[in-house]
C-alpha cells in the first residue's frame, strides 16, 4: 500500500512539473527576451541563455532616452498611467454598484428578476464589433472620444454585469437564516447587509476584484478603436504598436509585456488565499 | 411584513440596480438596436445610411473570404473548445491531488491567465516564429528540421488553439473550485463500495463537475467565436486566410473597407450563431448536467 502511494506521488510530481514547464517556459522566455540585448536576440543559432543580461530595456521603456524606439518611454508611461486609472476606476465602480445589485437579485423578489439575470449572459454573447459604431457615435456626440471616460463607460458596461453575476451566486449561497437572525434583532435590511453579509463575502469579493481588474486591464478591442492619442491609449494598445508600428521591436514588446503582466500577477499573489475559497463558495454552481 | 415597509426597504436596493439598468439601456440595448438597423443599410459612417433591405445578408452567401473565416471559426469552436476544456479538466484534476507543495503549483498555473493577450502573442511569435525560433531550435536539437508554423495553412490554427489552452488558467481555477465543492462523503462511499479510481472519476467526479463544465463550455464557445486579438496579432489572418477569424474579417470589413452596414450584418449573424449554440447547450444540459437538490447554488440562469 505504502509503495503504491509513493509511486502515485512521484507520478503527480512529474506531471505537475511538466505543467509548470508548459506554463512557465513561455513566460520565462518573455522575461529573458526583455533582459537581452538586441544583438543577442538576433544571433543564430538561438542562444538558450542570453550571454549579456541588461536592464537597459526597462530603463528605456520607463524613462525614455533610448534609440531603439522613437519615443517609447513617454508613450509607455502615459499608457501605464491610463491603464491604471481606467482599471481601478472601473473595478471600484463595478464592485460598488455590482455587489448591491447582486444582493438585490439574490435576495429580493421583484418582477423582472429572472430576465435581469439572463441579460448578463446576453451582454457576453453580442460581439463587441456589433456595438462599436453606435458606441463610437454616442461617444463623439458626447465629446468623450479620446478620453478615458469613454473606455471607463464601455468597460463598465460589461464588467458590471459580470460582477453582478458572480456576486449574485456567491450571495445566494449564504444562508438566509444568518440575516434573518439579525433582522429579528431589529436590524434593517441595509444594515444587516452591511454588517453581516458584506464581511462574510470578502473572499468572494477578492476573487471578483481580480477578475474585474484583469478584464479591464487586458481589454484590447475597444481600446484599439476608441483611443488614438496619448491621453487615452492603454497598455495593450501601446505594446501592440511596439511590435507593429516601429518595425517589430520584440525587445520593447517583451519588456512592455512583462511590466503589463506585473499588476495582475501581484494582485493575484496578494489575494491568493481568497481566490479559490471565494470561487468554491459561489460563482458557478450551475 | 407590511407592503409599505417592504417597499421602503427594497427601494434602497432597487436604487442600486438603476445604474446597471440605465447603463444597459444606453450602452447596450440602444447601440444594439442601432446596429441592427444599420445591418439593413449601405453605411460607411460618413454619408447617410441608405436602406437596402436584406442585401447585406444575402451577399454573405457568395463572399468567399467571409465563408472561409466562418469555417475557420467553426473549426476553433468545434475543435478548440473540446480540446481546451478537456485540457483544463485534466489540469485541475492533477492540481486537486493533495500532496505537499501542490499549493505552489496551484499558484503558478494561472500566471498565463494574468499575462495580457497582447504579450502572450509576442511570446508565441518568439516560440513559433519561422527560422530559429525556440520550438524550431528544440526540434533541430532532436534531429528534426525547421517547421514553418506560421506559414503553413494546416498548422496555424492548432498554434492559435495552443494559445487558448495556455492562457486558460482562469477556467482551471473554476474547475478546481468545482472539484473542491464535491462532498467528501461521496468519495468515501465509493471507496467502501470498492470502486477504483477510474470508475470513481466517471461515476462521481465527472457527474458532479457537469455544472462547471456547462459554464466553462459556454464561456469557451463565446471566447472562440469572438477570437480576435490572438489571430489578428499573431498571423494577421494568413497564410491564405487560414487564421482569418470571424471577428477579424468583420473588423476588416468595417475599418479597412468602411463597409459598416455589411459588417453589422456579419456581427448579427455571429450573434445568432452564438445564441443558437448557447441555447442548444443550455437546453441539452437538462439531460447531462447533474444538479444537486433543486435550486442549491441559487444560480438558475
TrEMBL record, chain A:
Name listed for the protein in its UniProt record: Carbohydrate ABC transporter permease
Main subcellular localisation: membrane
Membrane topology, from the record: Multi-pass membrane protein
GO BP annotations listed: transmembrane transport
Similarity annotation: Belongs to the binding-protein-dependent transport system permease family.
Transmembrane stretches, start-end: 12-32, 84-105, 117-137, 149-171, 192-214, 251-271
Record-annotated ABC transmembrane type-1 domain positions: 80-271
A cellular component annotation (GO) from this entry: plasma membrane
Keywords: Cell membrane, Membrane, Transmembrane, Transmembrane helix, Transport
Organism from which the protein derives: Cohnella endophytica
Localisation: Cell membrane
UniProtKB/TrEMBL annotation, chain B:
Gene Ontology biological process terms in this record: transmembrane transport
Topology in membrane: Multi-pass membrane protein
Places the protein is found: Cell membrane
Domain of life from the UniProt record: Bacteria
PROSITE patterns listed in its UniProt record: ABC_TM1
CDD domains: TM_PBP2 (cd06261)
ABC transmembrane type-1 domain boundaries: 70-281
Keywords in alphabetical order: Cell membrane, Membrane, Transmembrane, Transmembrane helix, Transport
TM ranges: 12-34, 74-95, 107-127, 159-179, 200-225, 260-282
Keyword presence, Transport: yes
Family: Belongs to the binding-protein-dependent transport system permease family.
Official protein name in the record: Sugar ABC transporter permease
Amino acid at each position: 500500500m505504502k509503495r503504491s502511494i509513493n509511486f502515485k506521488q512521484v507520478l503527480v510530481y512529474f506531471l505537475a512539473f511538466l505543467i509548470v514547464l508548459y506554463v512557465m517556459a513561455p513566460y520565462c522566455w518573455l522575461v529573458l527576451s526583455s533582459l537581452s540585448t538586441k544583438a543577442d536576440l538576433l544571433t543564430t543559432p538561438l542562444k538558450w541563455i542570453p550571454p549579456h543580461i541588461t536592464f537597459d530595456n526597462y530603463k528605456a521603456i520607463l524613462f525614455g532616452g533610448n534609440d531603439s524606439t522613437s519615443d517609447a518611454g513617454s508613450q509607455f508611461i502615459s499608457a501605464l498611467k491610463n491603464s491604471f486609472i481606467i482599471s481601478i476606476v472601473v473595478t471600484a465602480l463595478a464592485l460598488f454598484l455590482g455587489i448591491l445589485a447582486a444582493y438585490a437579485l439574490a435576495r429580493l423578489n421583484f418582477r423582472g428578476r429572472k430576465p435581469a439575470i439572463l441579460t448578463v449572459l446576453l451582454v457576453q454573447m453580442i460581439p463587441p464589433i456589433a456595438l462599436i459604431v453606435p458606441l463610437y457615435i454616442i461617444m463623439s456626440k458626447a465629446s468623450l472620444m479620446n478620453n478615458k471616460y469613454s473606455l471607463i463607460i464601455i468597460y463598465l458596461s460589461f464588467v458590471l454585469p459580470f460582477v453582478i453575476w458572480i456576486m449574485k451566486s456567491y450571495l445566494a449561497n449564504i444562508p438566509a437564516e444568518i440575516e434573518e437572525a439579525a433582522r429579528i434583532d431589529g436590524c434593517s435590511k441595509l444594515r444587516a447587509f452591511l454588517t453581516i453579509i458584506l464581511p462574510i463575502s470578502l473572499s468572494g469579493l477578492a476573487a471578483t476584484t481580480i477578475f474585474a481588474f484583469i478584464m479591464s486591464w487586458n481589454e484590447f478591442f475597444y481600446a484599439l478603436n476608441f483611443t488614438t492619442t496619448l491621453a487615452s491609449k492603454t497598455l495593450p494598445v501601446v505594446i501592440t504598436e511596439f511590435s507593429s508600428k516601429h518595425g517589430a521591436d520584440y525587445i520593447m514588446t517583451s519588456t512592455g509585456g512583462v511590466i503589463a503582466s506585473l499588476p495582475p500577477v501581484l494582485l493575484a499573489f496578494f489575494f491568493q488565499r481568497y481566490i479559490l475559497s471565494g470561487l468554491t463558495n459561489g460563482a458557478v454552481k450551475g | 411584513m407590511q407592503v409599505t415597509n417592504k417597499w421602503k426597504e427594497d427601494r434602497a436596493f432597487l436604487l442600486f440596480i438603476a445604474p446597471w439598468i440605465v447603463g444597459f439601456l444606453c450602452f447596450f440595448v440602444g447601440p444594439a438596436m442601432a446596429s441592427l438597423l444599420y445591418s439593413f443599410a449601405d453605411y460607411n459612417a460618413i454619408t447617410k445610411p441608405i436602406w437596402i433591405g436584406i442585401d447585406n445578408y444575402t451577399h454573405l452567401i457568395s463572399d468567399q473570404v467571409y465563408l472561409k473565416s466562418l469555417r475557420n471559426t467553426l473549426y476553433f469552436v468545434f475543435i478548440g473548445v473540446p480540446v481546451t476544456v478537456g485540457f483544463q479538466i485534466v489540469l485541475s484534476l492533477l492540481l486537486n491531488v493533495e500532496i505537499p507543495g501542490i499549493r505552489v503549483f496551484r499558484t503558478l498555473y494561472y500566471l498565463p491567465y494574468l499575462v495580457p493577450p497582447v504579450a502572450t502573442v509576442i511570446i508565441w511569435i518568439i516560440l513559433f516564429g519561422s527560422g530559429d525560433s525556440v520550438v524550431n531550435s528544440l526540434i533541430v536539437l532532436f534531429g528534426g528540421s525547421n517547421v514553418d508554423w506560421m506559414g503553413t495553412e494546416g498548422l496555424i490554427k492548432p498554434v492559435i488553439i495552443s494559445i487558448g489552452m495556455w492562457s486558460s488558467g482562469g477556467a482551471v481555477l473554476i474547475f478546481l473550485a468545482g472539484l473542491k465543492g464535491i462532498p467528501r462523503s461521496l468519495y468515501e462511499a465509493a471507496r467502501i463500495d470498492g470502486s477504483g479510481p477510474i470508475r470513481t472519476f466517471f461515476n462521481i467526479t465527472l457527474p458532479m463537475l457537469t455544472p462547471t463544465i456547462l459554464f466553462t463550455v459556454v464561456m469557451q464557445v463565446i471566447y472562440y467565436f469572438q477570437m480576435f486579438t490572438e489571430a489578428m496579432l499573431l498571423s494577421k489572418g494568413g497564410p491564405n486566410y487560414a487564421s482569418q477569424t470571424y471577428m477579424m474579417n468583420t473588423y476588416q470589413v468595417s475599418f479597412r473597407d468602411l463597409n459598416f452596414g455589411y459588417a453589422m450584418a456579419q456581427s448579427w449573424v455571429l450573434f445568432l450563431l452564438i445564441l443558437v449554440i448557447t441555447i442548444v447547450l443550455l437546453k441539452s444540459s437538462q439531460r447531462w448536467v447533474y444538479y444537486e437538490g433543486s435550486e442549491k447554488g441559487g444560480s438558475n440562469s
